[in-house]
Amino acid sequence: MKKGVILAVSALSLLIVCVPLFAEGGNLSAGRTLGMGMEVGFPWGGLVSARYWFGPQIGAEGIIFAWGDLTDLVGTFTGRLLYKLSDTDAVDFYIAAGATVPFSSYGESELILSGAGGIEFSFPFAPSLAFNLEFGGAFSTAGTFTMAFGTGIHFYF
Fold first, then answer.
1. Coil, strand, or helix at residue 37?
2. Residue 138: how many other CB atoms lie within 10 Å
């Protein structure tokens, strides 16, 4: 377990250092609008994600995580607003805030409000692809406050 964590941190550090070095001059995220992919987060889950950038700084994201069948569907839907703080050639920094709503036939009603800071990495060898990491906090209407963490990958059309 410890070796796996060290390996993951080392790979992430290498990625953070190397991506800007290989940037081909010019902003790799310029002109992005619709992105489809997957976003996984704690504590709210996640799977299928769609991002849309309305302009260079403002965006929105919808994330859905569901399982079961049509008669017993369980899952969560997350809607978030994104605001880009910094837009460099290969790495963008943004903040995200939104809410997660569970849905099920059992009538769960706990709402989770979350806020996070994110880093989105663009790849010069695949300019339509972006990888992101997010850290922040989440507050549940059940009265709990917890750390929020997320990661995802999106393909921009």
1. strand
2. 21
Q: Which helix (H) or strand (E) holds 141?
A: none
- Asked if 136 and 119 count as a contact pair (C-beta separation under 8 A), the reply is no
For the record, the structure tokens of 152 come out as 């995802």
Whether the bond between 43 and the residue before it is cis, its omega within 30 degrees of 0, is yes
pLDDT in tens, 32-48: 999 999 999 887 778 89
Task: Tell whether pTM > 0.90.
Answer: no
Residues of the chain under the 70 pLDDT cut:
1-25, 105, 107-108
Q: Compute the distance between CA of residue 154 and CA of residue 157 in angstroms, rounded to an integer.
A: 10
- Cβ–Cβ < 8 Å for 66, 49: no
Q: Which fold has domain 2-156?
A: Porin (2.40.160)
User: 14's torsion region: left (phi>0), alpha (psi -120 to 50) or beta?
Assistant: alpha
Query: What pLDDT score was predicted for residue 157?
Result: 93
For the chain, the domains span: 2-156
